[in-house]
C-alpha cells in the first residue's frame, strides 16, 4: 500500500474537567488515548464507536480543531501542529470536516450562497465575484444539486436534510481537500436518503482520489461503505482491519457485543454476547483493558495490563489478551470458539 | 451545601467590591469631597470629626493604600462619620432609626409582590389563551409606571381626595415608638398606602416572567407525561409545571431585587416614610456624603443577604444544584 | 462563572431560522404593533417637541397653578409655566437619556458578553465574575451615589452613570448566548472551513443574537428613562433642565399634591408609563420571536381552546368504575381476534395541514404493533393522538379510538370527558417517550414519579404498599431499589430509560405506546432495553405500539408492522411477511436502504428524493415522485389499502379497478 495521506500517531487528547470550585485538581476526561490511525488516498476508513468513545474527538483532532495532548498528526508524513492562524488555514485547505447535523451546521440567518461564498473566498482567494459564482455552481453540480441557482438563494431551513448535507459536502469541496473527515454524515438523516449521501461520498472519494474517514456508530453501514474499519471503545481503538473481516469475524469481545446488539432481521442464528454493565467513566477509566469490567472473557491479566494490538491476519488486529501468544492457562475459552 | 458556600463566597466578594467602590468613588470623582464637606459644616466640626471625614472621603497627605486601610478600620468599627443633614447626629444613629422602617416595609412588600405576581403568573400561564391573557397589557402598564409617580397618584386619591389614609409619615405622632398595640396599629395603618404602591407596581414584572416560564415549561415532555399519567390537574399544575417554572423566576427574583428596592426607596420619599429612602433623599438634598455612602452600603448588604436567602431556597428546590 | 443558576439567557432558545418572515409576523401581532407605534410617536415628539411647544417652558406667567384650559392645554405650574411645553421639552431630555444610555450600555454588553463567551477560559471567568458582581449590586442606590458626586449633572453625566451601572445584565445574557452559539455546529463548520475568528464573531455569532441585543436595548431604554426620572425627582440632576423627572421634582417641591394640582404631575408620569409600556410590548414581541414556545402560546388562540372545550361536551360514556382484573391472556398469535384497541379513520390536523390522514388499525392483546416512518410521516402525531396528548393547534376532526374494557364493553377515547380520560390514562394505556431525560421531571425523585401514578389512581393504597410497589417496579426493569431516591440526572441514559418504562408499568396497563424509546441510546444499551421490554411483555401480557424509524429493529421485535408515509399507513403486514415480501414500493425501497450485518452483502438501492413536506403533498399517491413503479394513474388516484394475501398496501399496483390499472402497461 502507498503511504498514508493523513495519519494519527499515538494521539492523546485529555479535556480538563471544569471543576465547580476550581479547574480542578488535575482531573481530565480521557477522550482519546494513544490512538494511531492511517488514512489512504481513494480509500474509505470507518471509525466505529458508541457515543463517548472518542471517535468524533479523533476526527476533530485530525482536523486540528483542538490542540493535541500528546502524539502527532502527520500530513504526507510531516508532523503538523497548527490549531491557529495561517498554518491552521493551510491545514484545513487539505483536510475538511463534514458534520453530523446539516440543520445545525449552517448559519440560520445566512443564505446558502453567502455561506458557500465564504468558503470559496477563503480557498479560492483572488477570484472575482463572477468567478466565485461559477465555482459555487460547479460545487453544487458536483454534489447533485442541480440546477444550482435553485439552491443558492435559499436559506438553510428551506432545504431538506439531504439537500443541506449535500451543500455541506459542497462547502467542504470548496477547499479541494485531500482528506474528508465525515463525522456521522448520515446519522441525522432519514433512512431513505442516507444511501444517496453515502454514494455521493464514495463517488467523490474515488473520482478525486481523496482519503475519507467515515465516523459512525452504525457498524453495519461501515461494512457496506468502508474498505477498512477501526472500532473505538472508551477512547482507544480496540480492533482494526478490513471491514468485511471486522464485521464477519469480529475478534474483540467489544466488537462482538456491538455486532450482536445491532438490530438485524436477516440474522438467523441468535448468538448473543451477554452484556454486563455500563460504559466506563472516562475520568477514571478502568485499569488494564478498558473493556474488562464488561467483558465475559476477562482474565486477571486484563485488569492489570493494557493489551497491545495483536495481529490476527492480514491487517486485522485486536487489542485483547485472548490473542496473546502465551495466553494465561485460565483463558482456555476463545470467544469465537463458543 | 457546597453551592451555598460558593454563593456565600461570591456575595462576600461582591460586598468587598461595593465597599471598595464606596472608597474609590469620592477619590476618583473631580473635586475634593472631604474638603467640601468640612467647609459645609462651617467650622462646627471638632478635629476628631474632621479626621473621620478625611478617612472616609480622602486624605490628601496619605498614600492610597494607607487610606484604604484606614477606611476599612472605620467601616469595621462602624464609624461612618457625622451626618451633615442630621448634624450633629452620627451616621450610625441616623441609620439605626430609619433602617427598621425600610426593612419592615420593603421586605414584606417585596415578598408579597413576588408571591402574588408569581401566583397570578402560574394561573395566567396555565390558562393561557383565555381572558387572563388580557392581564398582561394591564400589568405591563402598572410595572412601567415610575413607583414614585404611582405613589403620588395613590396619595392624591386616597389621602387627599378620599381622606381614608394619612398623607405621610410612618406612624401617628400621638403614639410613641414601642411595642404597644397602639403603635403597631398606627404603623400598619400608615404603611397601607406605601405598601400598596410597592406591591402593585412590582406584581406585574413577576406575573409576566412567571407566565412566560409557565408557558415554556408546559410544553416540556415531563408535563405531558404527567398529564398522560392521569394525574389530577392540580398536581400537574403545581408539582410539575409551576414548581419547575418557578426556578428561573426565583433566580430572577434575586436579580431584580436591587431594582425593586431602589424603586421602593424613592417611593418612601413621596410618603415621607421615616425609612432609608427618605433619609437618602434628605442626604442627597444636603450633599451629605457620609450618610449617602453609608446608606448605599447598607442597602447593598441587605440585597446581598436577600440574594443569599433566595439561593438557599433555590438549592432547596432544585436537586441539580445540590451535588458537586 | 457557573455560579448563578440558570436565568433568562439559558432558557431562551436559539433563534429559529425563519428570521425574516417572523419579524413581519411579530409586527402583525396587535400588541406589538401598538408598542411600535407609541414608541415612534414618542421619538417624533422628542425630536420636534421644542418646535411645537406653545411656550417657553421656563417662562413665568400670571396664570399660576391654573387647571387645563384652552390657553394652557395641560395647565400651568405654581409660577405660571406652561406644563404642555415642559412635557414636550422634557420628552427630548428623557428620550435622549433613554436612548443614549441604551446605546452605550448595549455596546458595553456586546463587547463584554461576546468577548467573554467566545474566548472562554480565564478572561471569561473574570469578565463574568465582574458582570455578576455588578448585577447583584443594587443599581439605583449606586447610581444615586455616583450622581450625587457629580452635582447638577446634565444628561451626559446621567447617561454615563446609567451605562456604568447597567451593562451587566445584557453582558450576562449575551455571554450565555455566545457560549451556546459557539458550541453550535455551524460555528464549528465555519472554523473547519478555515474562517478567521473575527469573521466568525461578526458573521456567525452577532447576527444570530440580534433579537437578544434588541431586547436588551429596549429594556435599557425603559430602565434608563425610569432611572433618570427617579434621579431628577430626587433632585440629583440639573433641575433647571426640563425633563419628565424634573417636572415631577418641581411638582413635589412646590407641593402640587397638597394644592390638588393633579395636572402638574399626571402628564409627565403618564408619558413615562406609556413609553415604558410600549417598549415592553415590543419586547414581548421579541420574546415570542426568540422563544418559539411562547409564540405557540400566543397563537394557540381561543379557537383552538374552544375546539378542545367543545370536544369535552360530546357524548358521555360511562367508564367502568372499578377496574376488573383481566384473565391472563394466552401468548399472542397471528390469528388472535382479542382486540384491545381499534382505531378507525383517525385524522389529525395541524391548522390547515393534515398530519395523520384516515389511519385505521387494530391492536390485539399481547401484540407488538410496530409503526415505522420517517420524519414527517405523522408517526409521533399518531402516538399523541391515541393518548389524546396532542396540543393545539393539533386537532382531531375525525375518527374513533375504541378501547375494549375488561368487561368487553368498548369506549371511544375521543369521546371521554376530562375525568373519564384521567381515569383511563395510565390505568389502561401508558406511554414511554423518546427522551427520558426530558420526560422525567428533573426536580422530582424517580421513585416519587412512579408513586405519583399510584396516588392518583389507587386512592386506597397505603404509603408502605406504594413504596413496596415502587421497589417492585424498579426491580422488574432491573434498577436497584436504592435508586428510588435518585433524581433523573443522577442516573445513566440507559437507566433513565428503564426508569421511564417502570413508570409506564406502574398500573399494569393493557397498552403501552412507545415513541422511539431507544432512538437516543447506543445500540448496546438499546439491545438491553429491547430485550427487557420483550421479556416484560411476555411476562405481564400487555400490548405494545412501538414507533420508530428503525425498520430493522421493528422487524425483529414486532408481530405486525404498519409503515407510514405522508400521514397515511401505506402498508400493514405481519413482520415476517413484511421482511420477506414487502408489497409497497416504498417498503421495498426502505428494506433496500438498510445495510445488513449478517449474510452476504446485498445490493443497496435506496430511494431517490426526500420524504414529502406534509404541507405540500403531491397529488394522488404521495410516494409517486419517488416511486420507481409509478404510472400515470398514480397522480390522479389516491390509493386506499388493498388486500394482498395477509398483507395490505396502499398502492395502485394492487388495485382491482381495471380502469386504473390500465395505465400500468403504459
Summarize this entry quickly.
The complex is a heterotrimer of chains A (338), B (324) and C (666). Chain B contains 12 helices and no strands.
Largest interface: B-C, 100 and 100 residues
Radius of gyration of chain B: 23 Å
Beta fraction of chain B:
under 5%
Name the average pLDDT of chain C: 82
Keywords:
heterotrimer, A: 338 residues, alpha/beta, 8-stranded mixed β-sheet, 4-stranded antiparallel β-sheet, 12 strands, globular, disordered C terminus, C: 666 residues, 25 helices, 50% helix, 12% strand
Secondary structure elements and pairings:
The complex is a heterotrimer of chains A (338), B (324) and C (666).
Chain A: E1 6-16, E2 28-39, E3 44-48, H1 55-62, E4 70-75, E5 78-80, H2 85-92, E6 95-98, H3 112-123, H4 129-142, H5 149-152, H6 161-173, E7 179-183, H7 191-208, E8 211-216, H8 219-225, E9 228-233, E10 236-242, H9 243-248, H10 253-261, H11 300-304, E11 310-313, E12 316-318
Parallel strand pairs in A: 3-8, 3-9, 6-7, 7-8
Antiparallel strand pairs in A: 1-2, 1-4, 4-5, 9-10, 10-12, 11-12
Helix pairs in contact in A: 3-4, 3-6, 4-6, 6-7
Chain B: H1 2-28, H2 33-40, H3 47-57, H4 64-76, H5 91-126, H6 135-144, H7 147-161, H8 181-218, H9 221-228, H10 233-271, H11 276-285, H12 289-317
Chain C: H1 8-11, H2 19-28, H3 30-52, H4 83-119, H5 121-136, H6 139-149, H7 155-182, H8 185-193, H9 197-205, H10 210-233, H11 244-253, H12 262-290, H13 292-299, H14 302-312, E1 339-350, E2 353-364, E3 368-372, H15 379-386, E4 394-404, E5 410-412, H16 418-424, E6 429-432, H17 436-439, H18 446-457, H19 463-476, H20 493-505, E7 511-515, H21 523-540, E8 543-548, H22 551-557, E9 560-565, E10 568-574, H23 575-580, H24 585-591, E11 642-644, E12 647-649, H25 658-665
Parallel strand pairs in C: 3-8, 3-9, 6-7, 7-8
Antiparallel strand pairs in C: 1-2, 1-4, 4-5, 9-10, 10-12, 11-12
What features would you describe in this structure?
The complex is a heterotrimer of chains A (338), B (324) and C (666). In chain A, the strands form 2 sheets. An 8-stranded mixed β-sheet of chain A has the order 6-7-8-3-9-10-12-11, with helices on both faces. In chain A, strands 2-1-4-5 form a 4-stranded antiparallel β-sheet. Chain A is globular and about 70 Å long. In chain A, 31% of the residues lie in helices and 21% in strands. Chain A is an alpha/beta fold and 338 residues long. The model of chain A is unreliable at 19-24 and 329-338 (pLDDT under 50). Chain A has helices at residues 55-62, 85-92, 112-123, 129-142, 149-152, 161-173, 191-208, 219-225, 243-248, 253-261, 300-304, and strands at residues 6-16, 28-39, 44-48, 70-75, 78-80, 95-98, 179-183, 211-216, 228-233, 236-242, 310-313, 316-318. Chain A contains 11 helices and 12 strands. Chain B is globular and about 80 Å long. Chain B contains 12 helices and no strands. The mean pLDDT of chain B is 81. Chain B is mainly alpha-helical. The relative contact order of chain B is 0.14. In chain B, α6 crosses α8, α8 packs across α10 (233-271) and α10 (233-271) packs antiparallel against α12. The N and C termini of chain B lie close together (9 Å). By secondary structure, chain C is of the alpha/beta class. Helices cover 50% and strands 12% of the residues of chain C. Chain C contains 25 helices and 12 strands. Chain C has an 8-stranded mixed β-sheet with strand order 6-7-8-3-9-10-12-11, sandwiched between helices. In chain C, strands 2-1-4-5 form a 4-stranded antiparallel β-sheet. The radius of gyration of chain C is 33 Å and the shape is elongated. Chain C starts with 7 loop residues before the first helix and ends with a helix. The relative contact order of chain C is 0.07. Chains B and C meet through α1, α6, α7, α8 and α9 of B and α1, α5, α6, α10 and α11 of C.
Amino acid at each position: 500500500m502507498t503511504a498514508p495521506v493523513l495519519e494519527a500517531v499515538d494521539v492523546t487528547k485529555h479535556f480538563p474537567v471544569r471543576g465547580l470550585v476550581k479547574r480542578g485538581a488535575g482531573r481530565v476526561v480521557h477522550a482519546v488515548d494513544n490512538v494511531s490511525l492511517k488514512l489512504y488516498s481513494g480509500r474509505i476508513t470507518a471509525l466505529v464507536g458508541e457515543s463517548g468513545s472518542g471517535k468524533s474527538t479523533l476526527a476533530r483532532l485530525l482536523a486540528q480543531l483542538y490542540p493535541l495532548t500528546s502524539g502527532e498528526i502527520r500530513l504526507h508524513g510531516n508532523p503538523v501542529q497548527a490549531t491557529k492562524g495561517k498554518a491552521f488555514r493551510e491545514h484545513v485547505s487539505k483536510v475538511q470536516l463534514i458534520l453530523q447535523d446539516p440543520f445545525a451546521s449552517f448559519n440560520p440567518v445566512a443564505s446558502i450562497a453567502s455561506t458557500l461564498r465564504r468558503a470559496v473566498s477563503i480557498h479560492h482567494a483572488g477570484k472575482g465575484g463572477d468567478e466565485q459564482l461559477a465555482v459555487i455552481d460547479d460545487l453544487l453540480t458536483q454534489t447533485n444539486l442541480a440546477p444550482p441557482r435553485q439552491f443558492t438563494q435559499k436559506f438553510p431551513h428551506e432545504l431538506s436534510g439531504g439537500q443541506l448535507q449535500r451543500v455541506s459536502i459542497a462547502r467542504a469541496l470548496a477547499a479541494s481537500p485531500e482528506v474528508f473527515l465525515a463525522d456521522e454524515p448520515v446519522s441525522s438523516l432519514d433512512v431513505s436518503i442516507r444511501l444517496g449521501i453515502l454514494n455521493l461520498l464514495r463517488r467523490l472519494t474515488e473520482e478525486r482520489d481523496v482519503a475519507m474517514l467515515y465516523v459512525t456508530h452504525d457498524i453495519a453501514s461501515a461494512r457496506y461503505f468502508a474498505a477498512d474499519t477501526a472500532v473505538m471503545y472508551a477512547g482507544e481503538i480496540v480492533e482494526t482491519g478490513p471491514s468485511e473481516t471486522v464485521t464477519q469475524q469480529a475478534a474483540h469481545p467489544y466488537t462482538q457485543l456491538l455486532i450482536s446488539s445491532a438490530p438485524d432481521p436477516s440474522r438467523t442464528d441468535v448468538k448473543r454476547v451477554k452484556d454486563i454493565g455500563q460504559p466506563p467513566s472516562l475520568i477514571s477509566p478502568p485499569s488494564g483493558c478498558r473493556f474488562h469490567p464488561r467483558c465475559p472473557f476477562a482474565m486477571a491479566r486484563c485488569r492489570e495490563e493494557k493489551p497491545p494490538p495483536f495481529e490476527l491476519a492480514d491487517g486485522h488486529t485486536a487489542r485483547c489478551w485472548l490473542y496473546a501468544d502465551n495466553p494465561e492457562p485460565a483463558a482456555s475459552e476463545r470467544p469465537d470458539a463458543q | 451545601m457546597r453551592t451555598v458556600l460558593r454563593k456565600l463566597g461570591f456575595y462576600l466578594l461582591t460586598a468587598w467590591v461595593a465597599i471598595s467602590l464606596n472608597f474609590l468613588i469620592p477619590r476618583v470623582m473631580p473635586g475634593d469631597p472631604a474638603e467640601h464637606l468640612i467647609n459645609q459644616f462651617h467650622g462646627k466640626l471638632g478635629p476628631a470629626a474632621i479626621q473621620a471625614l478625611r478617612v472616609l472621603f480622602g486624605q490628601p497627605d496619605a498614600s492610597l493604600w494607607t487610606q484604604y486601610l484606614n477606611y476599612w478600620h472605620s467601616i469595621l468599627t462602624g464609624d461612618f462619620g457625622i451626618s451633615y443633614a442630621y448634624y450633629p447626629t452620627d451616621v450610625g444613629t441616623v441609620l439605626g432609626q430609619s433602617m427598621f422602617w425600610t426593612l419592615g416595609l420593603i421586605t414584606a412588600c417585596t415578598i408579597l409582590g413576588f408571591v402574588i405576581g408569581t401566583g397570578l403568573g402560574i394561573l395566567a400561564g396555565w390558562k393561557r389563551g383565555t381572558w387572563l391573557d388580557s392581564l398582561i397589557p394591564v400589568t405591563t402598564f402598572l410595572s412601567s409606571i415610575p413607583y414614585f409617580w404611582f405613589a403620588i397618584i395613590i396619595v392624591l386619591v386616597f389621602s387627599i381626595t378620599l381622606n381614608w389614609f394619612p398623607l405621610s409619615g410612618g406612624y401617628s405622632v400621638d403614639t410613641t415608638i414601642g411595642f404597644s398595640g397602639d403603635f403597631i396599629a398606627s404603623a400598619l395603618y400608615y404603611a397601607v398606602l406605601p405598601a400598596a404602591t410597592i406591591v402593585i407596581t412590582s406584581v406585574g414584572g413577576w406575573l409576566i416572567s412567571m407566565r412566560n416560564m409557565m408557558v415554556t415549561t408546559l410544553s416540556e415532555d415531563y408535563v405531558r407525561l404527567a398529564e398522560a399519567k392521569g394525574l389530577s390537574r392540580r398536581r400537574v399544575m403545581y408539582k410539575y409545571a409551576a414548581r419547575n417554572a418557578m426556578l428561573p423566576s426565583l433566580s430572577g427574583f434575586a436579580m431584580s431585587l436591587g431594582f425593586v428596592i431602589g424603586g421602593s426607596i424613592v417611593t418612601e420619599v413621596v410618603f415621607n416614610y421615616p425609612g432609608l429612602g427618605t433619609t437618602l433623599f434628605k442626604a442627597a438634598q444636603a450633599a451629605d456624603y457620609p450618610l449617602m455612602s453609608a446608606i448605599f452600603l447598607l442597602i447593598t448588604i441587605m440585597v446581598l443577604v436577600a440574594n443569599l436567602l433566595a439561593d438557599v431556597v433555590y438549592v432547596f428546590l432544585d436537586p441539580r444544584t445540590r451535588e458537586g | 462563572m457557573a455560579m448563578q443558576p440558570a436565568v433568562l439567557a439559558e432558557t431562551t432558545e436559539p433563534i429559529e431560522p425563519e428570521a425574516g418572515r417572523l419579524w413581519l409576523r411579530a409586527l402583525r401581532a396587535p400588541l406589538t404593533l401598538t408598542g411600535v407605534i407609541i414608541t415612534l410617536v414618542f421619538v417624533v415628539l422628542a425630536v420636534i417637541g421644542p418646535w411645537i411647544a406653545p411656550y417657553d417652558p421656563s417662562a413665568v406667567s400670571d396664570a399660576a397653578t391654573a387647571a387645563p384650559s384652552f390657553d394652557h392645554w395641560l395647565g400651568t405650574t405654581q409660577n405660571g409655566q406652561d406644563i404642555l411645553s415642559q412635557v414636550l421639552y422634557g420628552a427630548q431630555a428623557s428620550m435622549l437619556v433613554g436612548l443614549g444610555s441604551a446605546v452605550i450600555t448595549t455596546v458595553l454588553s456586546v463587547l463584554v458578553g461576546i468577548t467573554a463567551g467566545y474566548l472562554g477560559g480565564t478572561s471569561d471567568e473574570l469578565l463574568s465574575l465582574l458582570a455578576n458582581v455588578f448585577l447583584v449590586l443594587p443599581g439605583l442606590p449606586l447610581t444615586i451615589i455616583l450622581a450625587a458626586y457629580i452635582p447638577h449633572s446634565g444628561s451626559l453625566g446621567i447617561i454615563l452613570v446609567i451605562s456604568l451601572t447597567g451593562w451587566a445584565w445584557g453582558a450576562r445574557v449575551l455571554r450565555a448566548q455566545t457560549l451556546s452559539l459557539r458550541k453550535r455546529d455551524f460555528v464549528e463548520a465555519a472554523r473547519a472551513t478555515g474562517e478567521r475568528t473575527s469573521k466568525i464573531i461578526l458573521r456567525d455569532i452577532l447576527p444570530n443574537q440580534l433579537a437578544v441585543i434588541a431586547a436588551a436595548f429596549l429594556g435599557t431604554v425603559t430602565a434608563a428613562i425610569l432611572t433618570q426620572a427617579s434621579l431628577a425627582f430626587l433632585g440629583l440632576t440639573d433641575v433647571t433642565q426640563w425633563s419628565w423627572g424634573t417636572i415631577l421634582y418641581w411638582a413635589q417641591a412646590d407641593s402640587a399634591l397638597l394644592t390638588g394640582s393633579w395636572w402638574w404631575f399626571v402628564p409627565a408620569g403618564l408619558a413615562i408609563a406609556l413609553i415604558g409600556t410600549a417598549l415592553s410590548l415590543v419586547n414581548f414581541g421579541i420574546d415570542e420571536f426568540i422563544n418559539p414556545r411562547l409564540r405557540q402560546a400566543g397563537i394557540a388562540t381561543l379557537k383552538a381552546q374552544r375546539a378542545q372545550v367543545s370536544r369535552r361536551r360530546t357524548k358521555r360514556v360511562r367508564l367502568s368504575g372499578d377496574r376488573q382484573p383481566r384473565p391472563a391472556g394466552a401468548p399472542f398469535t397471528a390469528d388472535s381476534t382479542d382486540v384491545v384497541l381499534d382505531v378507525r379513520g383517525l385524522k389529525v390536523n395541524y391548522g390547515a395541514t393534515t398530519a395523520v390522514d384516515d389511519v385505521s388499525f387494530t391492536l390485539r392483546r399481547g401484540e407488538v404493533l410496530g409503526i415505522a416512518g420517517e420524519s414527517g410521516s405523522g408517526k409521533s402525531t399518531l402516538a399523541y393522538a391515541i393518548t389524546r396528548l396532542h396540543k393545539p393547534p393539533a386537532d382531531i376532526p375525525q375518527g374513533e379510538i375504541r378501547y375494549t374494557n375488561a368487561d368487553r364493553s368498548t369506549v371511544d377515547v375521543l369521546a371521554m370527558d376530562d375525568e373519564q380520560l384521567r381515569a383511563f390514562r395510565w390505568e389502561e394505556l401508558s406511554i414511554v417517550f423518546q427522551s427520558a431525560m426530558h420526560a422525567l421531571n428533573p426536580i422530582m425523585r424517580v421513585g416519587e414519579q412512579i408513586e405519583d401514578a399510584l396516588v392518583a389512581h389507587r386512592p386506597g393504597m397505603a404509603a408502605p404498599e406504594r413504596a413496596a410497589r415502587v421497589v417492585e417496579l424498579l426491580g422488574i426493569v432491573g434498577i436497584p431499589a436504592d435508586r428510588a431516591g435518585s433524581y433523573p440526572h443522577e442516573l445513566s441514559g440507559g437507566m433513565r430509560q428503564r426508569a421511564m418504562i417502570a413508570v409506564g408499568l406502574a398500573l399494569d396497563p393493557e397498552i403501552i405506546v412507545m415513541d422511539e424509546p431507544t432512538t437516543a441510546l447506543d445500540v448496546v444499551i438499546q439491545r438491553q432495553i429491547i430485550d427487557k421490554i420483550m421479556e416484560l411483555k411476555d411476562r405481564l401480557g400487555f400490548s405494545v405500539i412501538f414507533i420508530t424509524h428503525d425498520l430493522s429493529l421493528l422487524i425483529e421485535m414486532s408481530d405486525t408492522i404498519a409503515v407510514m408515509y405522508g400521514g397515511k399507513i401505506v402498508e400493514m403486514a405481519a413482520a415476517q411477511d413484511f421482511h420477506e415480501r414487502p408489497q409497497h414500493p416504498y417498503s421495498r425501497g426502505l428494506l433496500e436502504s438498510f445495510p445488513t450485518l449478517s449474510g452476504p452483502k446485498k445490493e443497496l438501492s435506496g430511494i431517490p428524493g426526500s420524504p414529502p413536506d406534509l404541507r405540500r403533498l403531491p397529488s394522488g399517491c404521495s410516494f409517486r415522485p419517488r416511486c420507481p413503479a409509478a404510472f400515470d394513474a398514480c397522480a390522479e388516484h389516491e390509493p386506499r389499502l388493498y388486500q394482498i394475501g395477509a398483507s395490505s398496501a396502499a398502492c395502485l399496483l394492487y388495485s382491482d379497478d381495471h380502469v386504473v390499472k390500465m395505465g400500468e402497461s403504459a
